[in-house]
Amino acid sequence: MRVASTIARELLIFAATLLVTSLIIFMVVNLLPGDVAGTILGPNADASSIAALRTTMGLDRPWPLRYLEWIGGLLTGDAGRSALSGQPVLALIGPKLAVTGWLVTLGMALAIVIAVPVGIAAALRRKHLDGLIWAGLSQLGMAVPAFLAGMLLVVVFAVQLSWLPANGYVRLAEDPGGWARHLVLPVVSLAIVQSAVLVRYVRSAFIDVLGEDYFRTARAVGWRFGSAVLRHGLRNASLQVLTVLGLQLATLFVGAIVIENVFVLPGLGSLLLSSVNQRDLPVVQTIVMIQVALVLVINGVVDLVARLADPRLRAEATEAGA
Amino acid sequence: MDFRIGRRPLIGAALAGSLASLVGCSSKDGGSGSQAQVHDLVVGATAAPDALDPSTNTAAAISQALLYNVYETLLKVDGKGAYQPLLAKSWTESPDGLSYTFTLEPNARFASGAALDASAVKTSLDRIGQDPTTLATLKSQLAAIDRVETPDPGTLVLRLKHPDNFLLYFLAQTAGIVYEPSALSTLNQKPAGSGPFVFSAWSQGESLSLVRNASYWGTPTKFDKATFKYYADPNAENAALSSGDLDIISNVQAPQALGQFKDTSRFTILDGTTMSEVVMGFNHSRPVFGDIRVRRAINYAINRPELLQTVADGHGRLIGSMVPPTDPWYEDLSNTYSFDPDKARSLLAEAGHSSGLTLALRVPTLPYATAAATFVTSALKDVGITVTVDQLDFPARWIDEVMTKGNYDMTIIGHAEGRDIVKWADPQYYWHYDNPAFQKLIQQAQTGPADEVNGIMKKAAEMLATDAAADFLYLLANLVVIRADLSGVAENLTSDSFDLTTISSKDF
User: Fold this and answer.
1) Residues 425 to 484 of B: which have CB under 8 A from any A CB?
2) Which class is B71-186 in CATH?
3) Which residue of B46, B241, B400, B408 is the best one to mutate when testing the A interface, meaning the one whose CB has the most A CBs within 10 A?
4) Which parts of the sequence belong to the ABC transmembrane type-1 domain (chain A) (predicted)?
5) Does B191 sit behind a cis peptide bond, omega within 30 degrees of 0 on the bond before it?
6) Out of A66, A73, A258, B468, which could bridge A78 as a Cys pair, Cβ 3.0 to 4.6 Å?
7) Which ranges in B273-424 belong to alpha helices (H)?
8) Contact at 8 Å (CB) between A304 and A239?
9) Tens of pLDDT, residues A161-175
10) Fold of B274-477
11) Which residues of B touch A263 (CB under 8 A)?
């Protein structure tokens, strides 16, 4: 019962947040100067034909009406059509969301695979030269912008060595090999920077854990160092790291556009940018809504996982609910 | 301790292994290599289309991909400005210039197999004239047509309201496209024409693919497939050609980057002309530009050869008026105002601006425009004009502020449309240039005897130059890089189309 009502409450807050956000998004997006009628008719049109098209497209109707139309459509799963091409917005966004989704999840997965062992090593060997080198390298990795890392990788692996395509994208269903080849460089350049950030958190989380009483106790009762690290260290440190990971993931879904641009990946960010430039507002509004929803969902999941992993949080939640 | 030492090489090995296996894949089916069975042509471009119907959306990217490749017109303009038959086998003009009779190509069909007869052509031309959703620019290009007659399926007659010497030219461009009549309602998603290529797929912002029209009525293309790929970032486009993902870059955005394609065993660089005049326009509705001394002073103050060197690494042409060298009435007017800052200063003093003048230069966020704005600002500062520059997002913001609201003193943009010199005869257009003598010349050229057109248009171009109607900075270069085995790419751009129909490879 208690669990069900907690979930219901969370969902209600989720829906209310989205509704308020949608209003803000709509207002801000519609404040942008210029409109899609001008884009369609271009530099050779005169002002009167732009005005006429604006009327035909209904762009001169009052904003509350246009907002209700949009939000009403969204509630029934219909985000309307692109003002430019007339394609359904969701059909337009779907494939782009998949591209960004692959890029971000694979990039983060690789970042974790790199950062966890490196971070632990840097923590364990923090008083030795090699540990300091790891920490220094992560500092360096953070200082390198993702796009620069991407461009360097392209020059080496695509232009000089011709091992991998310089950019572009192939759908997984069409050609799995081509899909993988096209994703290697973008995923690696994303992972380089994100793992550098992550290494620092893993390292400091582990240093904290190594100084905790329970760790010393584990060693004292005869646990071998490696087992103690794995059993107690990893689990406790992961809680701190998880929060950072959630933040990184959320930021990337919005910020992957930099990598998308360098590698010409047809992702959400590129579509958002071009739609803003062209003032294709139905597309802009819906993409931003999806990004907001994704961030909320990621935060929710991080919260949930943290509770499951940490008995203390579970206990708190139970006490608070009682 | 063993932990770290044990893990690290493992990760390295795993990465190296997966890289190696991927590399293995890539060399097997080496992309668009000429040895492959399927001949695929991949063309890089910068502006992606956001819709596909060139009659309702102005984006040049639509015609770039579709005109002549998927869509055909009655006739076509060749590189020398002469008319060549396409869907019309031949045509005649009546002595009074009030009607044109076209004999259609009897074998012509749409890619769907449907007949391409006079009534199909009539449907397309009538649609431009009568459908409220088609672009006003196209309507004005065909405005002289009074009615279209179809005496028999193989003959089309255009009856005109008044003679129009420009009509054939526009019939050969986007305005004259013959669309499949049964597909008109879905043209924005699915183009349907009669060309050697058929529309295959479109991924907005990413690519547009065409395949060979297996039942093409004319000379078929040698390529099984042609894909336009779109790059927002010019560096990415260059890298794609270097690494073999592209066969052609249709228009190099940063001429400074051409050096990387110097290897003639791999690439050919074409450096021709476009029709795109980069104009620094004056807002003639502002009193300050009513004074010709101010307009001339600005023209004298800017060292255009140096500007071309700075902005475009010397690629492009100085033209001095609104006419590209591929138009039959072109003459070099670039020396009308040779760089002379002293003269500029004295003209400004004469005009009463010796104590200084401040002008707003509002440019679109296009690389050449912002680069030129920086040059112009420092050149004008040198003669006592303070220029405040701001950059407006292109297209939306620039169109809104400059074109719709007329809220600017000066702006810089390339005018890519063919024969756009006639825009100077429209006082409503954003320059608000209202010169009755010029308007009369354009009208004479359009409706007068055909053999006088070139002479009159020359005069009109000279008038724009001497009147300093704008500062005609330069003409954008048509910089194309192609794989060395390819040929048949037009060096000079004479339409909106990137014409694939003439391209072939010496390897097959």
Assistant:
1) 426, 428-429
2) alpha beta
3) B400
4) 97-302
5) no
6) A73
7) 292-301, 304-312, 341-350, 367-382, 396-398
8) no
9) 888 888 888 888 888
10) Dipeptide-binding Protein; domain 3 (3.10.105)
11) 236
